[in-house]
Amino acid sequence: MEAKLEGWHEQIRFDFETSPFFQLLGFNLIEVSEDDVLLELPIEKKLYNTYGNLHGGAYATIIDNIIGMKMRAVFGQPVITIDLHTQYIAPVSDGTISARANVYGNGRKIKMGDAEVFDYEGNLLAKGYGTFKVIKEG
């Protein structure tokens, strides 16, 4: 059963804190505000590819989720991913990565967004963009 919370920011935090997937990977939700959502992922060996770097799927996952969370913050509605593209720029093997997103869309059901992923020194590691569909709650 889904809890209905008063504010969108409370709902984002609740969804994050009760997500087994976020807990499995080790995500940290750092900031939730009307203007910004910041998601971090400490790099652990369990997230490495065969070359000892962060797996590309981790980049795609943080991009997908930060865009979805930002849409929830801006539009006040949950979304699901229709299409996602990730551009890998640089590998990383330690520290923490972080992601921020921008979202767009005047459509009632279809929204778009993009995100960037940085290492702890501010170096750009990956970029992504996607198309999302607004869904009904509950």
UniProtKB/TrEMBL annotation:
Keywords: Hydrolase. The keyword Glycosyltransferase does not apply. GO terms for molecular function: fatty acyl-CoA hydrolase activity. Residues 51-125 form the Thioesterase domain. The keyword Signal does not apply. PANTHER family: ACYL-COENZYME A THIOESTERASE 13, THIOESTERASE SUPERFAMILY MEMBER-RELATED. NCBIfam families: unchar_dom_1. Belongs to the thioesterase PaaI family. This is Uncharacterized domain 1-containing protein. It comes from Thalassobacillus cyri.
